[in-house]
Design goal:
0% strand; 256 residues; 79% helix; mainly alpha
Length: 256
């Protein structure tokens, strides 16, 4: 049974989801277009690796905002590396990105292997803690997301060139902190995949709707049945995306 008292927790979590979707739908469409599906997982995992290093290195941990700039630095370096590879090994890029992700994940596990709280931190970075997001945590990501969207609106060609990797790294870094690696991947790929074959003018509006419904239903199910929030949202995002793909022919006629 859904408890209305949970709204104080669900509303900021839902706002975090919308904030993530605001940039991820556009970037996810570009990821599919470029055929580099694993880049989001790889960059998210590299950002998580930066957060782990900031946590495990006491000299870095005590520096101001190390939990923000260390993941951002690693994400930017990872994105720069992939951008460099895209011009030199384009035919093998997806395979290399996959290897990059695995190596980053293994490095994270090795760094946390002797940390008594390592398993919990790794779980938090992968699955996220979206239900524990508060309004104050959303301010900085909201400002950065707004700047990214304004930049894309001002110069859409940035998505086609190397600037895409810079924007991608910045957005992914903030998203991993809010929702975790699994939801970052799902937010990028599933709404974009849902409308990948849709040619109507409402393509992006529908992609946003798929994401919003997925987050909303996932959060409500998570709160009502005491399910892991990240896993529940990933599942409902996937189901919503599949439902749209199945209903797409009929919706295309209605929206035509």
């Amino acid at each position: 049974m859904f408890d209305l008292d949970l709204l104080s927790i669900l509303l900021p979590a839902f706002a975090a989801g919308i904030l993530v979707l605001s940039t991820h739908v556009l970037l996810g469409s570009q990821v599919l277009k470029r055929g580099i599906i694993f880049i989001d997982l790889a960059i998210a995992q590299v950002a998580a690796l930066g957060a782990i290093i900031a946590h495990t290195n006491h000299d870095i941990e005590h520096l101001p905002f190390s939990g923000v700039w260390m993941p951002a630095l690693f994400a930017l370096l990872g994105a720069g590396f992939i951008a460099w590879l895209s011009k030199r090994m384009a035919d093998e890029l997806e395979a290399i990105i996959g290897c990059f992700y695995v190596l980053s994940a293994v490095a994270a596990m090795l760094l946390l292997s002797n940390d008594p709280h390592g398993a919990e931190m790794l779980k938090q970075l992968m699955s996220g803690q979206i239900l524990w997001v508060n309004w104050s945590q959303l301010l900085f990501p909201a400002i950065v997301s707004a700047l990214v969207l304004l930049t894309i609106a001002w110069k859409p060609s940035l998505l086609e060139g190397a600037g895409f990797y810079l924007l991608f790294a910045l957005v992914i870094t903030l998203s991993v902190e809010l929702v975790g690696v699994y939801l970052v991947f799902s937010s990028l790929i599933l709404p974009a995949l849902a409308v990948n074959k849709y040619l109507g003018k409402a393509k992006f509006a529908i992609a946003y709707l798929v994401g919003i419904v997925g987050y909303g239903v996932g959060l409500v199910l998570s709160a009502s049945f005491d399910l892991p929030s990240g896993a529940a949202i990933v599942a409902t995002l996937a189901l919503t995306a599949v439902a749209f793909r199945l209903l797409q022919p009929k919706l295309a006629k209605v929206l035509a």
